[in-house]
Write a structure and sequence with these properties.
Blueprint lengths: L9 H12 L6 E8 L8 E2 L3 H9 L5 H9 L5 H8 L6 E5 L4 E2 L6 E6 H6 L1 H25 L3 E4 L8 H13 L4 E2 L2 H7 L9 H5 L4 H11 L5 E3 L5 H18 L6 E4 L4 H14 L6 E5 L4 H9 L6 E4 L1 H4 L9 E10 L2 E4 L16 E8 L4 E9 L10 E4 L7 E4 L2 E5 L1 E6 L2 E2 L6 H12 L4 H4 L8 E4 L1 H15 L3
Parallel strand pairs: 6-7, 6-11, 8-9, 9-10, 10-11, 15-21
Antiparallel strand pairs: 1-5, 1-12, 2-4, 3-5, 3-19, 12-13, 14-15, 14-18, 16-17, 19-20
Length: 477
């Protein structure tokens, strides 16, 4: 396991020395990870908690780490000696991977000695921001595909090896069926997919010879790339010729892949040609700069495409290349007593929610559909036997009272006392959980265009605390 302890910003370490000098480094602090809305976020799929837990359990400064920090000439020897024996001893509460999550709600909370909680900020954000971003993009692409197979093909366009590997993992959580990334396939037990490139076809004297050679190597998994020269006048006819030879030898072809051109027109024409030749069961796979927008458009045009290979725009989340998750102080403890903390801003949406909190998802019992998420102070209990008042945390006149509901805590302990407590789950089980939970949301909340805004509300007690702190600190008290 790689030691990622130095995967941090310098100011985490300089603040650490400041806390150490002020003898506040063991003060217990609470930090929340959450993200803010933008016009492209309808919902998100939480991911990366597995790698976050691994990072925290392995947190330690190796000798060469300390030597490097010493070489910077800015840290004291007593502080470096303290770092040399540092381990993460705190508690972490997080949503499950695959959970559907929304802006403002804390999807992960760290409760730990101040210096530890501060140090882990950068790594936790980069791990969770990236995988949540890609899982969310994959979920939207798979929704556009309407149940068709979606293959993640993005490794060569990812921003580095780690982005490609962990992006493939996140894509499966979001709903992709397989990946072209063999390393990710091995690491995470993901089905791998892929056949040939244009260079294979170009390396033979003719397209037919290229197809025949491939069929000889993979007679029971023969999927041919048909757009190297001319899809309809060359590629598909030559594929059919080889498919007939395969069938005569006792094998059934798998299908063809289209990687360029008018995919709607070409797929419809290719389908007719394949069907007329007696290959009704062969599939048509499409690839080439696809995303949820192009897939939805192709569906609306009646494209005859059975599976989708999605690369660049998935692995880079091209239309929104950063989630924008943040890590904010919510409370400190003095002699075991919580002191809530809040960040003020002239922008109302950037004012943080104070205190150590809990997050509940409220479901209508009659439909088992999610109604709202409800953020409370940690010591509050949601009583399902009583009506529950929900109101907008900014536009408070927007309110409703719900009855006949059930409340589920969204978060569970991930790490306690520095040790992993949540089980490691198979990736396919996480993906199944994501699909199941997404099914508990009305389509209006998850649709691509102009979604209805899902409610994320504060309890009256948390709202009152926040309002009182804003008023007090706003006066400079």
């Amino acid at each position: 396991m790689r030691n990622l302890t130095l995967l941090t910003d310098l100011y985490e370490l300089t603040m650490g020395q400041g806390y150490f000098r002020e003898n506040r480094h063991e003060e217990i602090a609470v930090f929340d990870v959450f993200f803010r809305p933008n016009k492209l976020i309808t919902y998100s799929v939480a991911a990366g908690m597995e790698q976050a837990a691994q990072y925290l359990e392995n947190l330690h400064f190796a000798e060469d780490d300390i030597a490097y920090l010493r070489s910077l000439g800015i840290f004291t020897e007593d502080y470096l000696a303290y770092l040399g024996s540092l381990r993460f001893t705190g508690d972490v509460y997080a949503v499950r991977e695959g959970e559907i999550v929304f802006p403002y709600e804390p999807i992960l909370t760290v409760k730990a000695p101040m210096i530890q909680a501060q140090l882990v900020e950068t790594a936790l954000l980069t791990i969770i921001n990236h995988q949540t971003l890609i899982a969310s993009k994959a979920s939207k692409i798979c929704a556009a595909a309407q149940g068709d197979v979606v293959m993640e093909f993005g490794l060569r366009r990812a921003q580095g090896a780690d982005a490609g590997v962990y992006g493939a993992r996140a894509a499966v959580i979001g709903g992709c069926n397989s990946t072209s990334n063999v390393y990710a396939g091995k690491l995470f037990d993901i089905p791998v997919a892929g056949t040939m490139a244009h260079s294979w076809v170009m390396n033979f004297p003719s397209e037919t010879e290229a197809f025949r050679a491939y069929a000889r190597s993979f007679p029971d998994n023969c999927l041919l790339l048909v757009d190297t020269y001319d899809t309809l006048r060359s590629g598909v006819p030559h594929a059919i010729e080889v498919f007939r030879e395969l069938r005569a030898a006792g094998h059934e072809p798998k299908g063809i892949r289209l990687d360029s051109g008018d995919l709607a027109y070409l797929s419809k024409e290719a389908r007719k040609m394949l069907d007329d030749a007696g290959f009704e069961d062969t599939i048509i796979c499409a690839s080439g700069d696809l995303d949820e927008y192009s897939i939805r458009s192709l569906k609306e045009q009646g494209a005859k495409i059975d599976s989708w290979g999605v690369g660049t725009k998935l692995i880079t989340s091209a239309d929104m290349p950063a989630l924008g998750g943040v890590y904010k102080l919510a409370a400190v403890y003095e002699d075991g007593v919580e002191i809530p903390k809040i960040k003020l801003s002239d922008t109302t949406e950037k004012i943080t929610n104070p205190s150590f909190k809990e997050v509940y998802r409220i479901y209508d019992r009659a439909t088992d559909k999610a109604i709202a998420d409800y953020i409370t102070r940690a010591d509050e209990v949601v009583d399902e036997s009583k009506p529950l008042l929900l109101f907008h945390p900014v536009d408070t006149w927007k309110r409703m009272t719900v009855t006949n509901f059930r409340a589920r805590k969204l978060r569970e302990p991930l790490v306690m006392g520095g040790k992993r407590t949540a089980p490691t789950l198979p990736l396919q089980k996480i993906a199944a959980y994501c699909a199941e939970e997404k099914g508990r949301f009305w389509e209006e909340y998850t649709r691509q265009d102009m979604p209805h805004i899902y409610k994320v509300d504060l309890s009256p007690a948390l709202y009152t605390l926040k309002r009182e702190m804003v008023e007090k600190l706003g006066k400079g008290e």
